[in-house]
Design brief:
Layout: E1 5-9, H1 15-27, E2 32-36, H2 43-51, E3 60-66, H3 71-78, E4 83-88, H4 97-104, E5 113-114, H5 120-132, H6 136-159
Parallel strand pairs: 1-2, 1-3, 3-4, 4-5
Helix pairs in contact: 1-5, 2-3, 5-6
Amino acid sequence: MKAKVSIVMGSVSDLKIMENAARFLNEMNVPFEINALSAHRVPLQVAEYAGGLESRGVKVVIAGAGGAAHLPGVIAAVTPVPVIGVPIKSSNSIDGWDSVLSILQMPAGIPVATVALDGAHNAGILAVQILALSDEELMCKFKKYKSGLAQKVLKANEDLKDVKYEFKIDRQFGYE
């Protein structure tokens, strides 16, 4: 089995965020790999890694980094494989904004799809959506996942009927 998704982070300290993508990929039965590489500390290894993604069969990269978060952009500059960037609020971060802007503000020609600060779960979801475009079985699993999200919301709304207040009026969805 070969990895279809490569999760890469600037430091192993980012694992607590990036494992949210790994969990979702695992839940969807998508083969993935996880690596820690720094665009600033080992740039040659990052270029080598990124240059070999396509030949290894990787279809999507999820790259997370904090601070001056250049890792997703450097990877995107070297590979034709789509890159999803996860800005991470790290210990050296300026409230996360430096990470967000470093990933979001890529120059023309080097796109990085960017999710919310610490949004690795959504990065995993987006990776699955990309893969599902050419994989009917995965698309079925993903549709089931989305349906489950809707059911959770509907159930939660139903459960709210049990919350009692003197002036609370229960309203049903729909048009009146």
